[in-house]
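Re: [ENG-882] Designed sequences occasionally contain unexpected residues at chain ends

Forwarding the minimal case from QA. Structure tokens:
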């Protein structure tokens, strides 16, 4: 019951991993904020979770995200944990893929979670408390065929999160990145193809993947245990993720660099 009484804001909460996380958090007694595009679906999930605030918005409407951040923080006067889960996948070869597809994927999977995090970060820093969770992918550790844009965005989440973690380690803020493999959701059906249209069919690996409720429980256990990189897969997917795991010693070293005044020295150098 590590999250009992905590205010947890989850995006992409209308289905799949997001909905499973919401149910698991509700079972622990968390106070939930649920976001996504589909308000009706969000309200269905909220009805399963008890006391939840529904804040629908389009992830790439960054002005709306900023307004939602104000509402989310104002609901209970703080947010203990932000789970950036909303995203869209891809199934197309790079040689066939129109550039607007890349723009869409980067906007949804990378810029949107950064925008929402940035909207909450100063408030968490002032409070000296909070958790930021990014849902990346195994494809964010190893470039995956037919997912060039998706891999680029999900790799980007690791880069942003690693740098952010080092910066905020002394501010009481924890940063976690989850790298799921195949989980039984509609991620493949909802993936976009070379021309930006919805794929509409699933993959065998996804259909045979982890139950989202099992995955959600494991994710929360790992977050509560303080894991910074959470590899959520089985078999070869887990092996791939573990091979590319960043050692904790390296995360610690980067935090030490910041604690030793790296940012201040950079500012001093720039002013000379």
């Amino acid at each position: 019951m590590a999250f009992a009484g905590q205010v947890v804001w989850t995006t992409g909460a209308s289905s799949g991993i997001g909905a499973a996380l919401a149910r698991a958090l509700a079972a622990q007694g968390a106070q939930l904020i649920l976001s996504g595009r589909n308000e009706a679906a969000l309200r269905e999930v909220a009805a399963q979770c008890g006391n939840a605030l529904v804040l629908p918005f389009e992830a790439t409407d960054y002005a709306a995200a900023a307004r939602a951040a104000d509402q989310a923080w104002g609901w209970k006067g703080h947010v203990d944990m932000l789970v950036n889960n909303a995203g869209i996948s891809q199934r197309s070869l790079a040689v066939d893929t129109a550039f607007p597809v890349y723009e869409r994927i980067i906007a949804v999977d990378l810029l949107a979670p950064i925008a929402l995090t940035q909207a909450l970060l100063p408030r968490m820093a002032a409070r000296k408390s909070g958790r930021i969770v990014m849902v990346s992918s195994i494809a964010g550790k190893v470039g995956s065929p037919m997912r060039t844009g998706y891999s680029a965005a999900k790799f980007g989440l690791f880069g942003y999160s690693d740098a952010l973690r080092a910066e905020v380690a002394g501010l009481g803020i924890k940063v976690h990145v989850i790298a799921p493999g195949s989980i039984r959701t509609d991620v493949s059906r909802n993936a976009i193809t070379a021309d930006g249209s919805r794929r509409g069919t699933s993959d065998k690996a996804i259909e045979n993947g982890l139950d989202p409720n099992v995955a959600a429980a494991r994710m929360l256990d790992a977050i509560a245990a303080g894991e910074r990189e959470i590899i959520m897969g089985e078999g070869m997917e887990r092996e791939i993720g573990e091979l590319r795991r960043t050692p904790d010693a390296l995360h610690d070293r980067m935090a030490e660099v910041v604690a030793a005044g790296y940012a201040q020295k950079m500012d001093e150098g720039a002013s000379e």
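QA comment: On inspection the terminal residues look reasonable. The mean pLDDT is 96. Proposing we downgrade this to a documentation issue.
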